[in-house]
Amino acid sequence: MTSQFKAIHISYTDATGTTLERVIDPIYSLNEKYLIGVCSLVNERRTFRTDRIGNDIVDISTGEVITKSEWFKQNNIVPYPFHLDISKPRTIISPYYNADNKQEICFTGFTKIQRDELEKLATENGFFVRKNVSQHLNYLVCGKTAGWKKQEEAIQKGSTLLTEKEFLDIVKS
Predict the structure, then answer these.
(1) Could you tell me the pTM of the whole model?
(2) Is the pLDDT of residue 123 over 90?
(3) CB neighbours of 73 closer than 8 A, spacing ≥ 6?
(4) Is residue 26 reached through a cis peptide bond, with omega within 30 degrees of 0 on the bond before it?
């Protein structure tokens, strides 16, 4: 697949606020919100938000430095503003967002039928069920085939490991 866009050198600020210099080649896709291409830092395909790209872009083939807005014009792209109005609370409608700040729980090492039953029981008893270990996970309930990696990750993030019996005891109490 050949790219219609030339390789570029950019400064990019990621979601954590870290700014790094990157060469993107080839560029597979570009629209008002995202640039998708192979990043030389990791030599893998990456997606970049256009609002996080620095103001100067270097055309690798010519060495020409142009502004981001000029580069967008050359490529017939109108940048997306990405402005958030933080004066109004945002409503997040997502099954992955724990809006009620409930105790978070995840089940691993169970058959699908067992896990579905345990997740239903947890939800009925006021828990927020997660499919994966996260920073805010309170409990990881481990079945007979639970993998050590998920358990290790949960411990590193401060979660409590429970057996199925321990979980059922919590629900009954």
Answers:
(1) 0.46
(2) yes
(3) none
(4) yes
Contact yes or no for 12/19 (Cβ under 8 A) = yes
Considering only CA atoms, which of 23, 27, 22, 24 is closest in space to residue 5? 27
3-state secondary structure 136-160: CCCEEEECCCCCHHHHHHHHHCCCE
Measured distance CA(79)–CA(154) in Å, rounded = 40
Q: What is the DSSP string of 52-83?
A: GB-SEEEETTT--EEEHHHHHHHTT-------
Q: Which residues contact 133 (CB under 8 A, 6 or more apart)?
A: 106, 140, 150, 153, 154, 157, 159
Q: What is the pLDDT of residue 1?
A: 44
- Specify the amino acid at residue 96: Y
- CA–CA dist 138, 157 (Å, integer): 9
Q: Which two tokens stand for residue 119?
A: 């997740």
| 102 DSSP assignment | P
Within 10 angstroms of residue 150's Cβ, the number of other Cβ atoms is 17
Tokens representing residue 3 in the block: 């790219």
